[in-house]
Specification:
Length: about 200
């Protein structure tokens, strides 16, 4: 009887060990630490969505990071942005001649070979702070994959802006979605993100 109990216990321990090995294998397969999602996005009052708690682009950035198991860096200014839309219009114009400083840095940028770069379209282009980010690191031989939220402009040629600032990088196929869809129709947004990631072989 003792022997029988011992065998059952051994079998149980063996099964637990196998399950845990299988889980670890899956974790290793999904461990895409060579992918970074870097994004700029603002809460507060935004066009067409009212006052929001989470920025439109941030919502998309989180979906991409979840799907690809990427690391995340939020691009933030050392100076707080206004939380009113009119205030943002003023500051964003001013930044075009007086670029902001970025708070914090990406640790070990050299470890990443693919950077998903997210931003809202501002004045038909990338916000100045995103250009500052692109000028702050060596992106040579890396792939930069643009994604943006907007209120009608689409990508608006921002893949070209990124290519000009990072001529030695590969620019992946960009993704653009209305800010109002990202904010108010998250199922539709997630489907579009998933389709784009899948079409381009990231998932
Ligand atoms: C200063 C400023 C300029 C903008 N310019 C444009 C534009 O040229 N074209 C466009 O489609 N949307 C424009 N927008 C709308 C934003 O791109 C849109 O609301 C975006 O989803 C905001 O993203 P966020 O919440 O991640 O910051 C502008 C918004 C701001 C604040």
């Amino acid at each position: 009887m003792k022997k029988k109990l011992l065998s059952i216990c051994s079998l149980f321990v063996f099964c637990i060990a196998m399950t845990s090995c299988a889980e670890n294998d899956t974790e290793t397969e999904n461990d895409n630490t060579n992918i970074l999602v870097a994004y700029f996005s603002l809460a507060g009052e935004q066009y067409d969505v009212g006052v929001i708690e989470k920025g439109n682009t941030e919502i998309i950035a989180e979906m991409i990071a979840d799907a690809t198991n990427a690391d995340v860096f939020k691009i933030e200014s050392t100076e707080a942005y206004p939380t009113t839309y009119d205030g943002l219009l003023d500051v964003s114009k001013k930044e075009q001649t007086e670029p902001p400083q970025i708070a914090g840095t990406v640790d070990n940028m050299e470890n990443y070979d693919t950077i998903f770069l997210g931003y809202p379209i501002w004045w038909g282009d990338t916000p100045t702070i995103v250009n500052v980010f692109l000028q702050s690191y060596d992106f040579s031989d890396k792939t930069i994959v643009p994604f943006c939220t907007h209120s009608g402009s689409g990508l608006s040629g921002t893949d070209g802006t990124i290519s000009e600032l990072c001529p030695d990088s590969t620019i992946g196929e960009g993704f653009a979605i209305l800010g109002s869809t990202a904010q108010n129709d998250r199922d539709e947004a997630k489907n579009s993100v998933t389709e784009w990631l899948s079409d381009n072989g990231y998932i």
